[in-house]
């Protein structure tokens, strides 16, 4: 089954609603969205992530710690270096859809040109 063909079957009364709000809260930060985008293709060290998102390693580590508690990222240690990756594809999908929504709000959505 493709990602596009999945249908949400949760009701407004779902027990997952409150946890979903917590996930949105975690992602309601530009640095964290940039971190998710940077991690789309695989794991990166804190220092590499800091370079990509133009923040200090300390700031990036603080964001990653919160994202780890929220089960969005996971860590692998090699010596004194910590490498982070996404836990699964869901955070990547959420952020991608949010960026597409932002594109809709700001200009012509190129990702819909091949769709009726």
**How many domain regions?**
1
| Overall mean pLDDT | 89
Number of helices, counting only DSSP H or I runs of 4 residues or more = 5
CATH H-tier superfamily = Winged helix-like DNA-binding domain superfamily/Winged helix DNA-binding domain
Order of helices and strands, N to C?
Answer: HHEHHEEH
Reported by name, the CATH topology is: Arc Repressor Mutant, subunit A
Strand content: 5-15%
Round the Cα radius of gyration to an integer and report it: 16 Å
Helix share bin: 40-55%
Placed side by side, the strands forming the largest sheet appear as: 1-3-2
Q: List how many beta strands DSSP finds.
A: 3
Tell me which CATH architecture applies here: Orthogonal Bundle
Question: Would you summarize the structure shown here?
Answer:
It contains 5 helices and 3 strands, in the order ααβααββα. The protein is α+β, with helices and mostly antiparallel strands. The radius of gyration is 16 Å and the shape is globular.
Layout of SSEs?
Elements lengths: L16 H11 L2 H9 L5 E2 H8 L3 H13 L3 E6 L2 E6 L2 H18 L10
Antiparallel strand pairs: 1-3, 2-3
Helix pairs in contact: 3-4
Plain-language structure description:
With 116 residues, this protein is of the alpha+beta class. The protein has 5 helices and 3 strands, in the order ααβααββα. It has helices at residues 17-27, 30-38, 46-53, 57-69, 89-106; strands at 44-45, 73-78, 81-86. The protein has a 3-stranded antiparallel β-sheet with strand order 1-3-2. β2 and β3 (81-86) form a beta hairpin. α3 crosses α4. The longest helix is centred in the C-terminal third of the chain and has 18 residues, at 89-106. The two termini are 22 Å apart. The model has no long low-confidence stretch (mean pLDDT 89).
